[in-house]
Amino acid sequence: MIHELPKLDYSKDALSPIMSEETLDLHHGKHHQTYITNLNNFIKDTDMEDMSLENIILNSSKDNSKAGIFNNASQHWNHNLFWKCMKPNGGGNIPPKLEKRIINDFGSLDEFKKEFKNAGVTQFGSGWCWLSINNGKLVVTKTANAENPLIKNMKPILGCDVWEHSYYIDYRNKRPEYLDKFVENLINWEFVESLLD
User: Fold this and answer.
1) Could you tell me the pLDDT band of residue 38, with boundaries at 50, 70 and 90?
2) Which fold does the domain 21-84 belong to in CATH?
3) Which of 39, 65, 124, 184 could, after both became Cys, cross-link 91 (CB 3.0–4.6 A)?
4) How many CA atoms, within 13 angstroms, populate the side-chain half-sphere of residue 37?
5) Which DSSP state fits 155?
């Protein structure tokens, strides 16, 4: 199975000025494509060639000798989710079913947003912040580098990339501002809600 770069659901300039066309072009067209190219090269003629992306991630995460496969497979999966979690004129009102779950598990929407942004801000170095389902409950976590909550038996439904290539062109070293804009102006809450069940 050959892994391919997914098409975006929006044009490269559609998230501007929150995420510029230059950032999206480099991030999607260069960084994400590199992970896919590396992954295809790593798994060619191996027993992982016909596995699903999720199974490649789960199998390689347990084996240090397969770190290259894991890092590239996981980053491919992470970015597939990341692109879907954004839309032009995103943010705003959260659909009722998801809103109810968030309030139930975090106490309030504000508390959830605070936890999510804080996870991204406090992730030292490269990584991700996540909203995931863990044993039926919504939880916020952060992971380093390519890791994601799949390897902890969680189901990620929202991910934000806090590697510098996600925001440095637009925000320089202001990661908190990037996270604030991501939450308030980019998230495709309808897509996130669709992953609840």
Assistant:
1) very high
2) Helix Hairpins (1.10.287)
3) 184
4) 7
5) E
